[in-house]
Specification:
Blueprint (H helix, E strand, L loop, with lengths): L1 H15 L3 H6 L1 H11 L4 H6 L1 H15 L2 H11 L2 H12 L11 H6 L1 E4 L5 H14 L4 E4 L2 E7 L10 H14 L2 H9 L8 E9 L24 E6 L10 E3 L8 H17 L6 H8 L5 E3 L6 E5 L4 E3 L8 E9 L20
Length: 345
């Protein structure tokens, strides 16, 4: 009986997926049609990624700030236009001519060589090896070890290990001073910090990356920043970060277009907006590849278009990155347990 129900359900979805309108609106329907109706075997791998995306989204909502859930709903009502005015007009970021981060403000991205020395690298890699069993394995080729889930408390780690990593983030990297130099304001919210581990395997099964970070995209439409620190040598063969310089700049006309793009992103093309649509109104230049040795830092404005580079599929390759995400600073009313002042160390 169970098998008959499953078979009937498959046949029903097959028929529904033949609708061109539904395939244009729902990427899942397009994938289903290509793999089960049109018989395109290349789509089977991508289709298999949908359950994993559901798992990853569940993890994301558990650990991300509350503002993201509300932000998606507010997108429909154009709240990002108000955010644009707030962040770009009422609180403009000062730009100094001789500022060492001027490249970041002009191009949206800046590479800082040797932001972390060999001692800090060894400390982080040893920390990861010790606790990687606690990583969230979103896909076979992508996992994340969360260190600060927007609080300075994480009881998954031994107290001394956690204290040492905390000091590395707040004293060695000195993220509070770094943020003040970037934004011209004081860091009040604990940043989200994690270690991202990308793996690339040989074989047809692993030709596609399920996380879709290899698709050009922008995280938010208002100025905010992230810091990547490479924990191993990264070049164009193992997923070097890529950025489209200048795409972080905004005008009132672009805000309206960004509003329409945000609706497509959240409700129609969740797997990624077609790059040509995004670049047409941004007049984006060619992407630059941010290669670097272990310890290299990459600061970038997440409102600009960026992507993870590709992996050469000749052998097993990996890319490990320390992520420091400052987006939580933009929340208007962050929970008290996310405030730096709530967690004196």
């Amino acid at each position: 009986m169970k098998e008959k129900i499953i078979k009937a359900g498959r046949l029903l979805v097959n028929e529904v997926s033949k609708s061109g309108f539904l395939r244009s609106v729902f990427p899942f329907m397009q994938d289903w049609y290509q793999s089960n109706v049109a018989g395109n075997p290349a789509k089977l791998q991508f289709l298999g990624g949908h359950p994993y995306r559901i798992v990853r989204n569940k993890m994301f909502w558990l650990h991300a700030p509350r503002k993201y859930a509300g932000g998606i709903i507010l997108n429909v009502f154009g709240a990002q236009c108000l955010r644009y005015i707030t962040h770009n007009i009422l609180r403009p970021v000062p730009v100094e001519k001789n500022d060492y981060l001027r490249e970041l403000r002009v191009n949206g991205v800046q590479k800082i060589d040797g932001i972390l020395d060999s001692g800090g690298l060894n400390q982080l890699t040893q920390f990861y090896e010790k606790y990687k069993h606690l990583s969230l394995s979103y896909f076979e080729d992508f996992s994340e070890l969360i260190i600060f889930p927007n609080t300075r408390e994480n009881k998954n780690f031994e107290a001394e290990d956690f204290r040492n990593v905390h000091d590395l983030i707040f004293k060695t990297l000195n993220v509070e001073t770094l943020y003040r130099d970037i934004a011209g304001s004081r860091l009040e919210v604990i940043p989200f910090v994690s270690i991202l581990h990308y793996k690339s395997f040989v074989g047809e099964r692993y030709m596609l990356q399920f996380d879709k970070q290899d698709v050009p995209h922008c995280d938010v439409f208002y100025p905010s920043h992230k810091l990547f620190v490479y924990l191993n040598d990264v070049d164009e063969n193992n997923g070097a970060f890529m950025y489209f310089p200048g795409t972080h700049r905004y005008t009132p006309r672009n805000v309206i277009r960004e509003y329409l793009a945000s609706l497509r992103y959240y409700f129609i093309e969740r797997a990624g907006i077609a790059p040509t649509n995004a670049f047409r109104f941004r007049k984006a230049c060619a992407a630059i590849s941010l290669v670097g040795r272990a310890g290299t830092g990459v600061l970038f404005n997440v409102a600009g278009i960026h992507r993870r580079g590709n992996f050469l599929k000749d052998k097993y390759r990996e890319r490990m990155v320390l992520l420091v995400d400052f987006r939580q600073q933009e929340a208007m009313f962050p929970p008290k347990n996310q405030l730096l002042s709530s967690h004196p160390v």
